[in-house]
Design brief:
Two copies of one chain form a homodimer. By secondary structure, chain A is mainly α. The first copy, chain A, is built from nine helices and no strands. The structure holds a DNA duplex.
Amino acid sequence: MTSAETKAEPRGRLSATDWEQAALDVLAHGGVAAVAVESLARTLGVTKGSFYWHFPTREALLKAAIDRWEQRDEDQVIGHVERIVDPRERLRELFQRVSREVQSHLVYAALLQASDHPLVQPVIERISKRRLALLTAAYAEAGFDPRTARHRARLAYTAYSGFLQLNQRHGMPRMDQEEYQAYIDHVIETLVPA
Amino acid sequence: MTSAETKAEPRGRLSATDWEQAALDVLAHGGVAAVAVESLARTLGVTKGSFYWHFPTREALLKAAIDRWEQRDEDQVIGHVERIVDPRERLRELFQRVSREVQSHLVYAALLQASDHPLVQPVIERISKRRLALLTAAYAEAGFDPRTARHRARLAYTAYSGFLQLNQRHGMPRMDQEEYQAYIDHVIETLVPA
DNA sequence: CAGTCTCCATACTTGCGCGTATGGTTACTG
DNA sequence: CAGTAACCATACGCGCAAGTATGGAGACTG
């Protein structure tokens, strides 16, 4: 009885989507390893027998869940941020969204931590390329020459993912809301000079 | 026969230190999960029977190996960098060392990825605190007010660990040596203004 | 209301990696 | 050169989570 033997909410019937949703939840808080079928079944109030009707294997669920997340991310984060023209605002928005929209970033952090898994490796690569391109374009628009834009984008992105890694899960003296905002402001000020 | 069933170099006898050394090697390249006793035994040219003479459990080996690494890190990286007074030079040295001294940083990256493991969690916390303090002190010496120094240090450190995470293992369009140097220079220029 | 399709439970089997038990071999000491 | 201690091999037990086999209960269709 370590932690999450809790819920067991018995909705009537389940669909594949329900499993994917539940998988994303535990993925966000427990990492890839925590996505286990028997455990998931318990939190959904059913048993393995149910799972293997909807999915052929655990990997299939993982892939489906991650694909769903990537799709939502493409729409919400990218689609929304991409419309902001000012790179300063764009970067601010990206970092601000780490505090709200926690779920999505938690999943990303979990995936980062399991980047050696053959299933998530290509996902991380795609996401990284995409976001890096987004940042690079932003800096280029802001007047940076291509080379500098690439470097600055990489710096911003590594700072972003390093931040996720060092905060969301463990250690690092916790920041309160005010300190967090001050930090974000500092990052913007440092990485997006006038 | 996935990958590393190779070596099997039969030195005469083995000591606990040999096992710790080998553990660090596979830890650096395969992560914490790759530190498996039977696998390690094969690469050392022996069997499990040998291992359990030197160590009571796998966790014990892991702890010993990580302790050894942390000790070496304390001496080499910190001890050496700490003597550099100019923070600009100190930061440059820290980032430069990511290319040389690969082993140590690879281990750190592997530990970062397994930061949920009860054995490495306190290690990461210690290391993070220590390095963050190092950077904070450097920025403070350089004339930053305490609050800004903390923020800048955090930014530099997250950029550092994010860089490790996104490069050393997987994805991210590989940088050649020249590009890498240019990037480092850009980071220094950006994070350590005159 | 008989048949079937969907969803789920129960009881297995299987693979993998840790740990144990026990005996063998080399090295070292008196 | 016995005898003991350090080091290692072989063979087993065991737990855990994935995957399988099979049958049962509710819903929907003719």
